[in-house]
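B., you asked whether I could sanity-check this one before it goes into the benchmark set. Here's the sequence:
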Amino acid sequence: MIVVFGLQAQSDNTQFSTLNPDTTLNSDTTLNPQLSTLNSQLSTDSTQITRQLRKEQRALARANFLPNPNQSLWLALTFPGAGQIYNRKYWKLPIIYGGAMGVAYAVSYYGGYYNEYKQGYLDYSDSNPNTNGHLALIPQGYPESSAGTYVKNRMDNYRRYRDIFIVVGVAVYALSVIDAYVDAQLAGFDISTDLSMKVRPKLDFEPHTSSPTAGCQMQIYF
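And here's what the prediction gave me:
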């Protein structure tokens, strides 16, 4: 009886030790793919949340952007339109560059005619009879005796127009610089929508005679 009981106990222990590793192995095999999938899902969600947070931070920074007036001034002085780009007023760029291109075209147009008539006037003024380029500049049938006066007047007119547009170009550049600086200065100015004005009757007294005087009182709330 004792021997049989000992063998039976040994057999039970052997069976228990044999089944325990199999059960552990099956449990690990089932949980490992699930844990890997969960970790991958968490990593993907974390990446998406981080990207969304960064996107919202950039949008908030753009919404609360306040330009530095001094930096805007120096950028505008360095290159026309750079101050407006820094202030994020991009709609002003076509105005500035359109004006600059128009001025540049006018200066080139009138400057070209000025140089042409200047050379014609030099041909008329020199003592060389072979230099007669001024004759091609006068209208057909115009007297040659008055060719010098005609060429000189045209030369002066084109020079005047060229100089005027040079001044206009400088003015456009100066206005772009002033606009960039003022715009940056007023970027932080709070324009409240709660504006109201009230007009009320008012009764006052003269300081010397103490006689009553009627008037009106205006109050502006902002």
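One thing to flag: Residues 1-64 form one domain. Otherwise nothing jumped out at me.
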